[in-house]
User: Fold Amine oxidase domain-containing protein from Zavarzinia aquatilis.
Amino acid sequence: MQGFDVDVVVVGAGFAGLNAAARIVAAGRSVCVVEARDRVGGRTKPGTLSGHVVDLGGQWVGPDHRRLIALAARHRIPLEPQFEAGGKLIDYRGRVRRYEGLIPALPLLALLETDRVMKRIERMAAAIAVSAPWAAAGAADLDRITVAGWLDRNLRTKGAKAMMDIAVRAVFSAEPSEISMLFLLTYLRASGGLEPLISVRGGAQQDRVKGGLHPLSERLADEVGRGRLRLSSPVSGIEQDGDGVTVHVSGGEALRGRRAILAVPLALLSRIGAQPAWPALKTGLAQRSPMGSVIKCHVAYETPFWRARGLSGEAVSDAAPFSPVFDGTPEGARHGVLSGFLEGDAARTFTGKPPAERRQAVIATLTRLFGPEAGQPIDYVDNDWLEEEWSGGCYAGLMAPATMTSYGPALRTPAGRVHFAGTETALEATGYVEGALESGERAATEALRALS
Amino acid sequence: MQGFDVDVVVVGAGFAGLNAAARIVAAGRSVCVVEARDRVGGRTKPGTLSGHVVDLGGQWVGPDHRRLIALAARHRIPLEPQFEAGGKLIDYRGRVRRYEGLIPALPLLALLETDRVMKRIERMAAAIAVSAPWAAAGAADLDRITVAGWLDRNLRTKGAKAMMDIAVRAVFSAEPSEISMLFLLTYLRASGGLEPLISVRGGAQQDRVKGGLHPLSERLADEVGRGRLRLSSPVSGIEQDGDGVTVHVSGGEALRGRRAILAVPLALLSRIGAQPAWPALKTGLAQRSPMGSVIKCHVAYETPFWRARGLSGEAVSDAAPFSPVFDGTPEGARHGVLSGFLEGDAARTFTGKPPAERRQAVIATLTRLFGPEAGQPIDYVDNDWLEEEWSGGCYAGLMAPATMTSYGPALRTPAGRVHFAGTETALEATGYVEGALESGERAATEALRALS
Assistant:
């Protein structure tokens, strides 16, 4: 038996790992956080645009994100509302139209059907328990088909299909053909439904953190204590024995703890050799948890010219690659910013391409949506999450059909003395920073209980 | 610039890697094969049952498997026919029935529909080019849905649904809900259709290798040259520069080659750190290539008692976990063997369980199918491929919807100086040992061309 360096070794310094570590420190136990990157924050990341900090990753805060709101409040960092005054734009079947409210202007039948299917999906999601979606009534049937297959079966109008495709891409950074219907419903349920997820006011895009969301991970790291963090330390293996866990860091160093918390996306689990091997169902789940595909882009203009024309900056397209778009102007800035995403197939088309090519495609979409003024940007920045080695994609891990029913029960199950965190394992706001915080809390509770 | 240890470093000593290495040696170039396991053979593996060698992994040889047949002939190892004389059994809706031919005895409507849907699937598969299935007519639609979703839409009778479920499980070691319809068609196309894949005579189960298929990998390793093999050497990273490739082996050693061939399942790609990082579409594909789920089991009896009753030993079930079953009796043996599989959900139910529990479930199925004599085995052996760290499952990597159209073009694309082999990348007999051999040939050709 060897001695212990700490009570708990946490792998991963995103919001999940940091929150777990902060909880463990607060409980009077010792902790060390090991992180592959040279920075904290995981899937949040700061960038610079026209001299201001922008979020290249996670950005928005919803009114239900109570842990995230409390973290900002604790550090006296104010939230600012997402700008949403004015009309929205939709590029649909070759024409750009203006609309108000949640659902775009569509032919009447398409409008009625969109409304009906959204209500139906809300009802279906409400019947799912996030803690055990595989036990829901009809779970097997819902997990046999893709969202695309379900929509094909249940929608008649092209308009409603286009709307649902747009919504799914925006929420999951994936095509409707990539994910299981049961997974979609479970994910929606964890955030209170579809409407909150695609809404600004009252929804997941309601607020931003002044100065960017990323710096909150720095504050959380301060709470943990900088001396307890080891950056630039990829973990190569985890060994367990009767007493504890040895976490091997690339380069040869090893840390020994009584317990470990793994707070990395499941898609990266196989990078970490395990002795004894990870349980087969955990490995199978990791093989079946691909990350979403997204490139986040910000474009700066001399002024937020769309506001002067009564537009909110919010826009979606059924064909152009850059969708959805939001007003990303920092409060108090003189310049204007449009922020948005290349998602699913669009992200896969543009990953690995030169940034100039991406920029051109993004500006072309904005020009199509907002007119020639959008063709005169003063700055541009983007981040290709598909190329981030230590995320493997964003926003979150996805589940294709059959994964949730066959492997879901392995999601939060510890492997011996190793506990699992990460937004994918969250019961609330899965896929969001709030979910990451919640999962860290839960994993810390598990580890602390085991220590006592 | 450093010197080179060899022209080509091959990672993985399954049939794909060994065949690539043999080709490179035959071309007068130098090679080194690095293998994580302490043995060659990959997804083939020898076991012992009643004093005879049995295949715990890949086992059968079809008449189209010309490379595999040539390899056996080269080493004067005879093939023996899979025993198939007599009636077959189907356990369907609670009753065990006997039948002859390819399609079991079913109610007339179910029989007609099974015949019709199989012919339809054969026609659909025939329209696919294996080299670029994503370019086939209707590819996007076929890749939007699972096989389960397609069957639900296109079948009315319970009997035909049960038959297709049984066939899909047997061919893919997966549930129909796990895989994309386009993937299924492509896989069938690479082996000439569905009927050859589920047939004994004239199909993929026609022959076995006397003494087991696994030893052929030993002969192939002899062809490569034992001095060129490094067993028990997991690869931790691959670095590329302007001149060549450095393959880092766990423990610190490194091998330098002008080119490398990676002949491991894509599901294991993320275990191998890369500098520069793997291209994003390769990583995305690797995240979306889960391995099938299968536990292979052999049961020995005093005699092949089913033969005396005019049964071939072939049996399937729509409910019991152990299906399909074949006569696995070695030619010339006095005892009898029934060999079969726990596949898909059944494999996931029994992985991690004590072998005695698996044995009990297997014997119970056999007793249900073949009567009380099946309850008196004299020996039992199984292999849980879900727990094999260096395979991650079997028989092969699978694709859920949207994977083939979004990531398929990355399948065989080299990453700089690294080429990709493995049965998943094969254009012929994908998923089989024959496909592994073909993929090794193709990767060797690529590497040799680049060297010349």
In short: The two ends of chain B are 20 Å apart (CA to CA). The mean pLDDT of chain B is 96. Residues 108-126 of chain B form the longest helix (19 residues).
